[in-house]
Fold:
Amino acid sequence: FFVSWFGFFYLRCYFFVSNMYCELEDQAHPNANFWKFYKLGYWVKPKDYDIPMHYYKGALAGFLGGALVTPFRHMYETSQLMLSRYAWPENKKQFGIFFREIFKQPFFKENFGSRVASSAFLHSLQYGALFGTYRTLSAGLHSHYYYVDLNIFQRLILAGLAAGLTCWVATPLEMAQHAYQADKSWPKELQKGYRGVMHAGWRIAKDEGLHQLMRGTWVLSLRNFVANYGVLYLYDTLKDKSRFTQWHGFGWKGYLQPLITTLSVWLGLAIAYPVARVPFLMTTFPRDRQGKNLFGNSTVNAFSFQKKMILDNAEGYGGLNTWRGFHLNYFWKQGPILFASLYAADYMGLFSYAEYDWYDNAWWHLDDLYGVA
Structure:
């Protein structure tokens, strides 16, 4: 014990003296490249810092995600409706006929345009606010080219702020979407005549008041906060910690970026799924003659019911059974659009940061990036 304690004390003294000597040596050469590293703060505003451009790129990424993925989603749902009436194609000829019939179905033709437009607008609004806010907060982060730090808390606060500030932005449009879909399920004589999601939102705001679009949306905002927080933090942190692949010749664009994007989206949505089940319970539980469900149309009661079922392990809801139906009911509906939007946002530079190096006179123009002399 004495030998171990003495050895530890000796090493502490040695590192203290050596660090003090190095700091004094650094101060003797204030114009050296490595000294510029110490003058950089935790967050330094870049020269190309452009807040409107951050939100524009984020909105464009969300628009591309919604516009590119929704047509395939609509085709898939139309094919599922057809398979509920017809048998599965047995050969190539039948598959070709089945594929062409998808585009002739009334469900496909009537809802295609409005669904793609509303999805593109909704996700451009949601992810434009999310990615734009996060980039505005995180653009001043920087990292060393040859050094991967082990700090996993660097982006924790920034991702939480971005998710918390923007989790409510698209919820009114999502409520209008639910109202439009519910109106289509009623008989013709009971329908309110919504022509699309945007028209439903405009009619509700005009006839019932704008507050109706925000009523009960706290659970949607909570779901968005948890999912977006998880996705932003996981993706940006994993990308930062995998920068070493660029030095050793691994392919970031080849396979690592799709892998990290998929993992981040899957884990983020999985964390949010217990909260996302609450709106699912509200819409799937049977209603009485007055139109009220088991929870009295209260999201607070539905959330309490979901919480009690999980904590009490009632009907096998505890443990891994909490995520029962995750892939079918939630991941395959939200994951592809979020994957495409996140991929597009990274391609447009919303998750790229300045890197620097002081070895072999390879200083990477900090003055051009930050204006640091």
User: Anything to note?
Assistant: The two ends are 51 Å apart (CA to CA). The longest strand covers residues 142-144. Residues 22 and 28 are 10 Å apart (CA to CA). Strands lie at 142-144, 354-356.
